[in-house]
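Pinned message: reference record for NAD(P)-dependent dehydrogenase (Short-subunit alcohol dehydrogenase family)
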Amino acid sequence: MAEVLDPPTREEPGLPGNEHELDPKPEWQPRYAGSGRLKGKVAIVTGGDSGIGRAVAVLFAREGADVAIMYLNEHEDAADTRKFVEAEGRRAICIPGDLGDRDFCFKAVQQVVDAFGKLDILINNAGEQHPDEKIEDITEQQLRRTFQSNIFSMFFMVQAAMPHLKKGAAIVNCTSETMYKGAPILLDYSATKGAITAFTRSLAKNLVEQGIRVNGVAPGPIWTPLNPSGGQPPEKMPEFGKKTPMGRPGQPNEVAPSFLFLACDDASYMTGQVLHPDGGNTTQS
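Predicted structure (C-alpha cells):
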C-alpha cells in the first residue's frame, strides 16, 4: 500500500515560488568558461528549477555534465532551466514530484538512469521553510512537512541512488547558515539543517570505503524565489541580506561554484566537509 503523505502546508501558498515572477531576477548565469571538470558525468539536482538549483544545473552543464532537474511543480521555471542546460550543449530531463515521497524518489532515480545510462553526482538541494515568530505557531502538519521535504527527502534520494553510484561518485547536500547561527523565526527549518549537517558528516564516514565522497554547502541569505514567496515575512524582505558583513544578499551563481568544487575531482581529498558561501555571516559572533 502506498504511503499517504501529508498535503503541502498552506500557510504560505506562494511557496516554493516561481523565479520568472521575481523582480529583480536572481543571477544564475555561470561567470566563467567551462574547463571540462564534469565531462561525461550525469548529475541529479533536486530543486533544480530555480534559484541555487538552476545555477548549479547550468554550471554543471557548462562543465560537461548531463543533468536531471527534479522539482515540485514549477513547470515553467524547470522548462527554462532545461533550455539553459541544453544551450550549454548537454542533455537535460525534468522530473516533477514530491521528494518527500520515497516511492517517487526511487522511480525518479531509475528514470534518470534509464535516460542517461548512469549516475555520478547527487545534489540534494530542494527544501522548504515557513517563518513563525512563536514555537506554538508551528503546526504539526508544518513540522512534518518541513522535515519530510528537507531531510527525509535526502535519505530517500541517497537510498535510491546508492545502487547506481560507483567509486568516485559525489553527493553534495545543501544545509544552511541557520544550522550554525540559529534563526529565531525558522525553528523547524533550522532543525532540519542541523540534521542535514549531521547526516552529511555521518554519511561521509559510512561511504568513504566505497570511494563515494559526501560534502555540504551552507549558504547564507541568497536571492532566490524561496524567501520573497513566503519563506520570510514580507516586512523583512527590504532588509534581506543587508546584515551580512558584505552588506547584501548573495546570488545563486555565487553559491553554485561551491557545489561544483565539491562534486568534481578538485575536491578528491575532501569528505564530510561544509563550505560557507554566506557573505561572512557565520564569522559574526
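Pinned by admin. Summary line: The chain has one domain: 37-283.
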